[in-house]
From TrEMBL:
Gene3D superfamilies: P-loop containing nucleotide triphosphate hydrolases (3.40.50.300). It comes from Jiella sonneratiae. The lineage of its organism: Bacteria, Pseudomonadati, Pseudomonadota, Alphaproteobacteria, Hyphomicrobiales. Belongs to the ABC transporter superfamily. The gene is ccmA. This is Heme ABC exporter ATP-binding protein CcmA. The keyword Cell wall biogenesis/degradation does not apply. It holds the Pfam family ABC_tran. GO terms for molecular function: ATP binding.
Length: 244
């Protein structure tokens, strides 16, 4: 897949780009940059949650959950953002079962799970992220690190070729970070792609790095003397982000 002149932003305001780069099957792209640089904005755009300001993404050979060639990256990708996307009152296994159905995992096919290529059942996915036996516990009862790991188990209950990950290892201890790095490495070894924004090294030796530098003078916080960004029209933003 390739980003082609991709400019990302909020509402009509460009935040970062243009980006021109290719990510091959089996490759990781690590997106770095200071707070506010536009990492999340880029990832949300790739996941189809924000429209690009200009440019786009060229897809090559990516398959959607229905087995057809993906028309949009969102159809061939997992997105795990800052929020966990899990219902607090539901059991962890129930949450994962919801995601499997929603993402179109299809039935677990015998043999595939053993090879690591097919979707895992919720209990197996939890074991793979180091949380065996927690299927029936309400998500709200888990610790912060356990919640993050349970949220990442989504990646395993439905197989998608591209993983879009925003700070995936936040709240993870060192052992869990290493466990997750192993899961990403396995995904890449099977020809997957991982695109991750992070402030921490993910242990991905062969990763391509995209460092986003905010334009000089952008007003990124209290005390800044830079020019103030144009006001964003709330209605336009709501429409663009699909709140309406
Ligand atoms: N909903 C929004 N409306 C308007 N501006 C926004 C919105 N969300 C983010 N921004 C602005 O877009 C810019 C990029 O934010 P973004 O969240 O993409 O940064 P980031 O690189 O992911 O930062 P961090 O490392 O803190 O997570 C920031 O200046 C931010 O204030």
């Amino acid at each position: 897949m390739a980003l082609q002149g991709l400019v990302v932003g909020r509402g009509a305001v460009a935040v970062a780009g243009p980006f021109d780069l290719a990510v091959a099957s089996g490759e990781a792209l690590v997106v770095t940059g200071p707070n506010g640089a536009g990492k999340s904005t880029l990832l949300r755009t790739l996941a189809g949650l924000l429209p690009p300001i200009s440019g786009g993404v060229r897809l090559e050979g990516l398959t959607a959950a229905d087995g057809e060639a993906a028309a949009r990256l969102a159809d061939a990708s997992h997105y795990v953002g800052h929020r966990h996307g899990m219902k607090a009152a539901l059991g962890v296994g129930e949450n994962l079962a919801f995601w499997a159905g929603y993402l179109g995992a299809g039935p677990l096919r015998t043999g595939e799970a053993a090879e690591g290529a097919g979707p895992l059942a919720p209990a197996e996915a939890l074991a793979a992220v180091g949380l065996p036996g927690l299927s029936d516990i309400p998500f709200a009862y888990l610790s912060a690190g356990q919640q993050r790991r349970a949220s990442l188990a989504r990646l395993l209950v439905a197989r998608r070729p591209v993983w879009i990950l925003d700070e995936p290892t936040s709240a993870l201890d060192l052992a869990s970070q290493a466990l997750f790095a192993g899961l990403v490495a396995g995904h890449l070894a099977r020809g997957g792609i991982a695109i991750a924004a992070t402030h921490h090294p993910l242990g991905l030796e062969a990763a391509q790095t995209l460092h986003i530098t905010p334009p000089a003078g952008r007003d990124d916080g209290p005390g800044s003397n830079g020019p103030v960004a144009p006001a964003i029209d709330d209605a336009a933003l709501a429409e663009a982000e699909g709140w309406l």
